Amino acid sequence: MNLEWDSDEEREEWMSQALLTLHAAEEMLLGDLAGDCIANSFLAMIYAARAALVGRGGEFTTWEEVITRFREAAAESGLSPENRRALPVVAELYRRVFVVGDMEADPVTASACLDDARSFLRELAGMMGLSVDEEDEGDEIWEA
């Protein structure tokens, strides 16, 4: 399976949601809410992965399905190895903190998740013909 990077309304909507959620993760980290930062970083990555899968067929009802389908498609997409690994790593941290509960969220881990999410979104956006630029007093915006 190969990802096609067409720009359409649904894909842009998913990526916009990813960016808004990424901004929320940044605010959570600044607010010393490590768990919420991890959760929002993970969700931003899920939204971005979902954007990449628009037009690939099938419905996704769980985040596990999104991750599985994205991993299958990303292997052939040209996505960097670091960002191919980032989603499963952040997903595992999310699972351990919120699903299993065998790990406490901390600021260092939250910051690493946020950095992974930023890199993941930036690369995927670029592959879809979008960019995330630092403008307007440090705010990141999408440009087509």
How many whole angstroms does the radius of gyration measure? 14 Å
Instruction: Tell me the number of helical segments per DSSP (H or I, 4 or more residues long).
Output: 5
CATH topology: Four Helix Bundle (Hemerythrin (Met), subunit A)
Classify the secondary structure makeup into a structural class: mainly alpha
Low-pLDDT runs: 134-144
Sum up the overall morphology in one term: globular
Oligomer: single chain
How many E-type strands?
Answer: 2
CATH class group:
Mainly Alpha
- Provide the helix percentage: 55-70%
- CATH superfamily, please? Nucleotidyltransferases  domain 2
Strand content: 5-15%
Which architecture would the CATH scheme give at its second level?
Up-down Bundle
Pattern of helices and strands: HHHHHEE
Biggest sheet, open or closed, and with what strands and sense?
2 strands, antiparallel
Straight-line N-to-C gap = 25 Å
Mean pLDDT: 84
Quickly count the domains.
1
- The spatial strand order of the largest sheet comes to 1-2
Question: Could you walk me through the main structural features you see in this protein, from its secondary elements to its overall organization?
Answer:
This protein is mainly alpha-helical. It has a single domain, classed as Nucleotidyltransferases  domain 2 (Four Helix Bundle (Hemerythrin (Met), subunit A), Up-down Bundle), CATH 1.20.120.330. Helices cover 65% and strands 7% of the residues. It is built from 5 helices and 2 strands. It has helices at 9-30, 34-52, 63-74, 81-100, 107-127, and strands at residues 131-135, 139-143. A two-stranded antiparallel ribbon has the order 1-2. Helix 1 (9-30) runs antiparallel to helix 5 (107-127), helix 2 runs parallel beside helix 5 (107-127) and helix 4 (81-100) packs across helix 5 (107-127). It starts with 8 loop residues before the first helix and ends with a strand. Residues 134-144 have low confidence and may be disordered.
